[in-house]
């Protein structure tokens, strides 16, 4: 936060994929602190070269030092720090820290989810039509959906589903586990239904460190969302 909206070095890892020196500093800080908490756990982070030894660990820290770096470098507030502890392929602890908006989201498996200490509950919506989606715009095929504010951080977009402030968050492409691990647990513990883009359960600490999309919804519309999005997801599936 002391550097946000200030001066710092930034560059591109790839087309449209910014990174800055703060990403690396947060990564180093978290690795030291989390290793002190659980030194036996492996490590999977966006800003650390992957070490396959993590696949031999029962527990793995899955971290995105700044999820939504594009918003961070532009001085916008839609970014967060995402930390999950994965045990036997599923998240058991999850934290999203969004200091630019003064929010800390937390969840523990079987114990619920909270934002700033207040319990979270997903929306009771049962009709897909009218569902609120954090997006800049809606495809014509989904004209019956409604847009709400979209932070650059996909973790925060999933968290909006956990809070009942959105009904559906979908990504229909291959993505990285560190983007969604903490938020997926937070949403699930708030009563949302969370899956990959085709409706299958998510697994974490996989060899590639990737998942085929994410679909986080109010529980009453998940099946309908899978049906609507399946053809689009299947077109995007081949690698």
Report on this model:
The structure is a single chain. With 239 residues, the protein is α+β, with helices and mostly antiparallel strands. It is built from five helices and 14 strands. The strands form four sheets. A seven-stranded mixed beta sheet has the order 3-4-5-6-7-8-9. It starts with 9 loop residues before the first strand and ends with a helix.
Q: Characterize the main sheet.
A: 7 strands, mixed
Portion in helices: 10-25%
- Order of strands, widest sheet: 3-4-5-6-7-8-9
Number of domains: 2
Shape type: globular
Output mean pLDDT: 97
Distance between the termini: 38 Å
Strand content: 25-35%
CATH architecture descriptor text of the largest domain = 2-Layer Sandwich
Fourth-level CATH superfamily of the largest domain: Fructose-1,6-Bisphosphatase, subunit A, domain 1
What tags apply to this protein structure?
32% strand, Fructose-1,6-Bisphosphatase, Chain A, domain 1, alpha+beta, globular, 2 domains, 3-stranded antiparallel beta sheet, 239 residues, 7-stranded mixed beta sheet, 5 helices
In short:
The chain has 239 residues and is α+β, with helices and mostly antiparallel strands. The chain folds into two domains: 10-119, 2-Layer Sandwich (Fructose-1,6-Bisphosphatase, Chain A, domain 1), CATH 3.30.540.10; 132-236, D-Maltodextrin-Binding Protein, domain 2, CATH 3.40.190.80.
């Amino acid at each position: 936060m002391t550097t946000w909206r200030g001066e710092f070095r930034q560059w591109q890892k790839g087309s449209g994929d910014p990174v800055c020196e703060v990403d690396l500093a947060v990564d180093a800080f978290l690795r030291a602190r989390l290793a002190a908490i659980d030194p036996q756990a492996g490590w999977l982070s966006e800003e650390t070269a992957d070490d396959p030894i993590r696949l031999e660990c029962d527990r793995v820290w899955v971290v995105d030092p700044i999820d939504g770096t594009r918003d961070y470098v532009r001085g916008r507030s839609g970014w967060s720090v995402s930390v999950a502890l994965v045990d036997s392929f599923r998240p058991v602890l999850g934290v999203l820290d969004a200091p630019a908006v003064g929010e800390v989201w937390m969840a523990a498996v079987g114990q619920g989810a909270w934002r700033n200490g207040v319990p979270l509950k997903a929306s009771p919506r049962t009709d897909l039509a009218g569902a609120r989606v954090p997006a800049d715009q809606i495809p014509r095929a989904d004209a019956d959906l409604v847009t709400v504010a979209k932070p650059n951080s996909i973790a925060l977009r999933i968290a909006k589903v956990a809070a009942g402030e959105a009904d559906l968050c979908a990504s229909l492409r291959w993505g990285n586990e560190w983007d969604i691990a903490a938020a997926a647990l937070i949403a699930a513990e708030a009563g949302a239904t969370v899956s990959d883009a085709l409706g299958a359960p998510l697994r974490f600490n996989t060899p590639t460190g990737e998942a085929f999309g994410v679909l986080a919804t109010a529980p009453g519309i998940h099946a309908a969302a899978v049906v609507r999005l399946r053809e689009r997801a299947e077109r995007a599936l081949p690698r």
